[in-house]
């Protein structure tokens, strides 16, 4: 049986209110070139959003970094913690290799997962009916 490594729309954070909810959770890891925020969700999967300010560089550079981060998430989604909403804020830096982004994401999300598990169950963010998949 083949393992599905798709990255469907239900695994992406797209709405501004979802980004604000994750920021308000105040669970983060600062890695210099990335700041990763996380918040537990009531879903059975992890969702990811990427925020890149214009200071990072030209549109070409920003899109390349965004693609590498999403690809790193997609390839390692089975090893990453579940039930999290994750926002990655990128700081200006030279684009790294895919493997470096994967290792960085894995380490940071494991740290954040242990922090988020300590939160009370009433602090888990509920989602609108449209996100219940």
Detailed description of the structure:
The protein is an alpha+beta fold and 133 residues long. It has three helices and four strands; from the N terminus they run αβββαβα. Strands 1-2-4-3 form a four-stranded mixed beta sheet, with helices on both faces. Helix 2 crosses helix 3. The chain starts with 15 loop residues before the first helix and ends in a 16-residue tail after the last helix.
> Which segments are poorly predicted (pLDDT under 50) over 5 or more consecutive residues?
128-133
Report, as a whole number of angstroms, the end-to-end distance. Answer: 23 Å
What portion of the residues fall into strands of 2 or more residues? 15-25%
Shape: globular
Per CATH, which architecture? Answer: 2-Layer Sandwich
Strand element count: 4
Write down the overall mean pLDDT.
Answer: 83
- The third-level CATH topology is Ribosomal Protein S5, domain 2
Total of DSSP H or I helical runs spanning 4+ residues: 3
Overall SS class: alpha+beta
Indicate how many domains the architecture comprises: 1
Bin the helical content.
Answer: 25-40%
Summarize the structure.
This protein has 133 residues and is of the alpha+beta class. Helix content is 35%, strand content 17%.
Summarize the topology.
Blueprint: H1 16-24, E1 28-30, E2 34-40, E3 47-51, H2 59-75, E4 84-90, H3 98-117
Parallel strand pairs: 3-4
Antiparallel strand pairs: 1-2, 2-4
Helix pairs in contact: 2-3
